[in-house]
Specification:
Layout (H helix, E strand, L loop, with lengths): L1 E3 L5 H13 L1 H11 L1 E11 L2 E10 L2 H10 L3 H13 L21
Antiparallel strand pairs: 1-3, 2-3
């Protein structure tokens, strides 16, 4: 997913994402509860300005998103608040067409 970042809020979002990366145990616990195997987050410059790009790998992405929406984990509550404040809206900008996803079965 690619979402537009409010230019004035980009520094706050960047600080928050760095904090999440330092709260690994909590983040992993939420991924396990949501059924997510992998989550990668990127900040990138685009024609839309700064965008937040999120990649998630899950058995059932819809189920994972619903679990996140209902989560009461402190880190998830904070994450939702920061995203609400720092993103222009919750809509995806542009779209991605999945071409392929290959995972090493021995990982």
């Amino acid at each position: 997913m690619k979402q537009e970042v409010d230019p004035e809020k980009a520094p706050k979002l960047k600080r928050w994402l760095e904090e999440v990366s330092n709260r690994t145990e909590e983040a992993v616990e939420t991924l396990q509860d949501e059924g997510v195997a992998t989550e990668s987050v990127f900040l990138a410059e685009s024609t839309h300005g700064m965008v937040l790009v999120t990649y998630m790998e899950a058995e059932d992405l819809q189920e994972a998103q619903e679990a996140f929406a209902e989560s009461t984990h402190e880190i998830d509550v904070e994450h939702k608040q920061v995203l609400q404040e720092c993103l222009v809206d919750d809509q995806a900008v542009d779209s991605f067409q999945p071409v392929y996803h290959i995972a090493n079965p021995d990982r």
